[in-house]
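User: Fold this; tokens only.

Assistant: Input:
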Amino acid sequence: MRFTEDRVQGLLERAFDRLLLRNTRVAAVQRVSDRFRLIDLEGDALQGAAWAPGNKLQVKVAGPFTARTFTPIVFDAVRGHVRLLGYAHGAGPGSDWLRRVQVGDACQVFGPHRSLALGDLAGPVVLYGDETSFGLAAAVGAAMAGRAVLRCVFEVESVAEATSALQALGVEAAMLVERSDEACRMQAASDLWSRGSGDGTLFVLTGRAQSIQQARHALKGRGVPASRILSKAYWAPGKAGMD
């Protein structure tokens, strides 16, 4: 019996789904703004899963083998519940899924898996990122729970839309700068590095790959040791499906 390439691919996808993916359903969808969605997933398959702030969860948004990565805001392994913030920042499978997802939809996920090793978060933290970093900011803020200071700077497409999303997440005291305003963006980052470079602060750099490279270079120029800098590129222009 001869197998066509499409049939082989279909068999591989079904085997992958059956062995590695967790079945969930969409329990809630909140339209925070035109491009932001808060999404709650529930399922027995999530119960007992190990999770820590900074871990990633991959959601199958189309097939075959088409997934997008999210940073859970809340993960309840007892109830089998996870909350995600999605940002539909352009055209593509992930943004299309965010715009069409509805309560009751079946949803397959892979993970959670380790992405950023944040440690015990006992000291001050500076988080530098963008819209794709908002979920991480909410998870880190909740984990720190007043034990230490969390300062955030986000470069964003729309300050008004970003403000709405952060308010929905309960993330306060974040500095927002327009991504297109290069001078303002770099000045905001420089001010933040100056305030945190000498007090043992952990710097967490996420979001756009180019911005992370610039921030890492600036921190090293101020003498911040590599052990106090964590980074994870979530996206880069022209590249799809980064995690």
